[in-house]
Write a structure and sequence with these properties.
97 residues, mainly alpha
Length: 97
């Protein structure tokens, strides 16, 4: 795997983690509301678990970062299959007489 692909794979989770740290350090309560809208499917799980957890900030940072990693990984897998299909079709066209 190239360094560019690794960078793109980890970019969104890293940005999410940085946003969580920035919101926590600045103590922005409204920032969490916006971040929960961005993390919509994962936020449902976090909101359901927050009531039984002492540090929701930590839980939100972990679950949201894992969510963005899984989304990045899925996009990378789909993209690699699409590009492989395109390459195979171009190679098949080049081999035709």
């Amino acid at each position: 795997m190239s360094t560019k692909r690794l960078f793109l794979l980890h970019l969104l989770p890293f940005l999410h983690l940085c946003a969580c740290f920035a919101i926590a350090l600045a103590r922005l309560d409204s920032g969490w509301q916006y971040l929960t809208m961005i993390d919509a499917p994962a936020s449902v799980l976090v909101i359901a678990l927050i009531y039984n957890f002492n540090h929701p900030l930590i839980l939100f940072g972990i679950v949201g970062t894992v969510w963005w990693y899984l989304l990045s990984r899925a996009a990378e897998m789909i993209g690699s299959r699409v590009f492989a299909t395109i390459r195979n079709r171009r190679a098949a066209r080049a081999e035709r007489p």
